[in-house]
């Protein structure tokens, strides 16, 4: 069994939050040694952590923090000495750590003869099969996402077309107005959106352009939202594309191809399948229609038109995590994985179409957590 160390807070570190399903705002030390889990913390957090019943909880006073604070040492040196004493108490000689493990602490532990091995793959794999509590949080987040998407659609539906402009309640409809209304919906569902995409026209064809300014008629609007459930800290992720007014022939065809690719991927995803194999199926559909993909792009040149990203990615305590479904994805899907399926087609300077569902890999196939129509018309 591999011994591990994590030094982080659980509000920003997904690896720590996975180990400690509780919001701890300051960095603390978590360890797994000889099959036993340990939490080293300030005394003010000890009671909450003990209530979890997941690990042995040790407070800083056990390691001489009061003496060190009275010695005149600087705060960082006190942190370092306490951490070294905590690790020494476990008798560790070697430990695997995530890539975010602090360099200052790794250097200090190595100077004490402890081998520190960065191994992010190990920690990524630990987070892949979601717990029931995490899945419940993801379902809550997904219902919030769908409610926020309804908020967006309602504003689009109520808008009037004047020339090429959309007017709502006498004022131009803008990304900023839509997001302000969606933010209220997210809050009402106890979720937090750090940021998300409402990208009209050409903005929808530029990677993660979050969108800004007026929303035009007769133009595709890509809405890609990924709120976090406040209780569990897990995310969801979904995308739909809308057009108010006339739908251009190429946009309609892109939408048809994306829905075909989405349906094929959903039929192929199951435990034991490599993510790249599912990605290849989407590329086959797009390539047959004459669209460029990462498989057919010119080597050494950026791909800016066609299908220029992976088919999907894992979602959990991070919006983007393992496993991937792209050109170099070599891992097989496992039961408990949660992955997005997001085929898209784009043309720079013009716009794009993307559809995205989020699914759980189950013993018998998948459970699609997304319950939302795919129509271009809002």
Describe this structure as you would to a colleague:
The chain is α+β, with helices and mostly antiparallel strands and 378 residues long. The chain has two domains: 4-126, 3-Layer(aba) Sandwich (Creatine Amidinohydrolase, Chain A, domain 1), CATH 3.40.350.10; 132-368, Creatine Amidinohydrolase. Helices cover 33% and strands 23% of the residues. It has ten helices and 21 strands. It has helices at 14-19, 43-52, 65-69, 75-88, 103-111, 120-126, 132-158, 175-188, 249-268, 275-288, and strands at residues 4-8, 28-33, 36-41, 56-59, 94-97, 115-118, 160-162, 165-168, 171-172, 191-192, 197-200, 221-225, 228-229, 238-242, 312-314, 321-325, 338-341, 344-347, 351-354, 357-362, 365-368. Helix 4 crosses helix 5 (103-111), helix 7 packs antiparallel against helix 8 (175-188) and helix 9 (249-268) runs antiparallel to helix 10. The N and C termini lie far apart (53 Å). 44% of the residues are buried. The mean pLDDT is 96.
Classification by helices and strands: alpha+beta
Measured as a percent range, the helix fraction is 25-40%
Distance between the termini: 53 Å
CATH topology of the largest domain: Creatine Amidinohydrolase
Number of domains: 2
- Average pLDDT level: 96
The number of helices is 10
- Architecture (CATH level 2) name of the largest domain: Alpha-Beta Complex
Instruction: Calculate Rg over CA atoms.
Output: 24 Å
In CATH, what is the class of the largest domain? Answer: Alpha Beta
- Measured by DSSP, the beta-strand proportion falls in 15-25%
Which strands sit side by side, in order, in the main sheet? 1-2-3-4
Backbone shape? elongated
The largest pleated sheet is described as: 4 strands, mixed
Total strands: 21
Within CATH, the superfamily of the largest domain carries the name Creatinase/methionine aminopeptidase superfamily
Unreliable stretches: none
């Amino acid at each position: 069994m591999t011994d591990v160390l994590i030094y982080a807070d659980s509000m920003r570190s997904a690896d720590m939050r996975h180990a400690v399903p509780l919001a701890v705002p300051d960095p603390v030390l978590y360890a797994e040694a000889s099959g036993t889990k340990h939490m080293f913390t300030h005394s003010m957090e000890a009671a909450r952590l003990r209530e979890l019943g997941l690990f042995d909880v040790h407070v800083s006073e056990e390691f001489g923090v009061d003496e060190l604070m009275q010695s005149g040492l600087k705060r960082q040196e006190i942190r370092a000495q306490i951490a070294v004493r905590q690790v020494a108490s476990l008798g560790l000689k070697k430990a695997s750590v995530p890539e975010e493990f602090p360099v200052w602490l790794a250097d200090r532990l190595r100077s004490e003869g402890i081998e520190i091995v960065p191994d992010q793959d190990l920690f990524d794999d630990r987070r892949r099969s979601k717990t029931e509590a995490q899945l419940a949080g993801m379902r809550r987040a997904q219902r919030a996402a769908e409610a926020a998407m309804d908020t967006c659609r309602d504003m689009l539906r109520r808008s009037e077309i004047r020339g090429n402009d959309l007017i709502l309640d006498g004022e131009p409809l803008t990304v900023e107005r839509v997001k302000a209304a969606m933010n209220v919906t997210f809050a009402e569902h106890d979720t937090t959106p750090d940021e998300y995409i409402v990208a009209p026209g050409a903005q929808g064809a530029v990677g993660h352009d979050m969108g800004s300014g007026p929303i035009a008629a007769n133009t595709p609007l890509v809405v890609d939202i990924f709120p976090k459930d406040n209780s569990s800290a897990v995310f969801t992720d979904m995308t739909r594309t809308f057009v108010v007014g006339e739908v251009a022939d190429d946009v309609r065809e892109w939408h048809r191809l994306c829905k075909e690719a989405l349906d094929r991927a959903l039929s192929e995803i199951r435990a034991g399948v490599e993510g790249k194999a599912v990605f290849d199926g989407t590329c086959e559909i797009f390539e047959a229609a004459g669209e460029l993909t990462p498989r057919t792009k010119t080597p050494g040149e950026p791909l800016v038109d066609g299908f220029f990203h992976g088919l999907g990615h894992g979602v959990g305590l991070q919006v983007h995590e393992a496993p991937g479904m792209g050109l170099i994805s070599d891992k097989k899907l496992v039961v408990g994985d949660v992955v997005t399926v997001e085929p898209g087609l784009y043309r720079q300077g013009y716009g794009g179409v993307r559809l995205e569902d989020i699914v759980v890999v189950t013993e018998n196939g998948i459970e699609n957590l997304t319950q939302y129509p795919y129509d271009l018309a809002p």
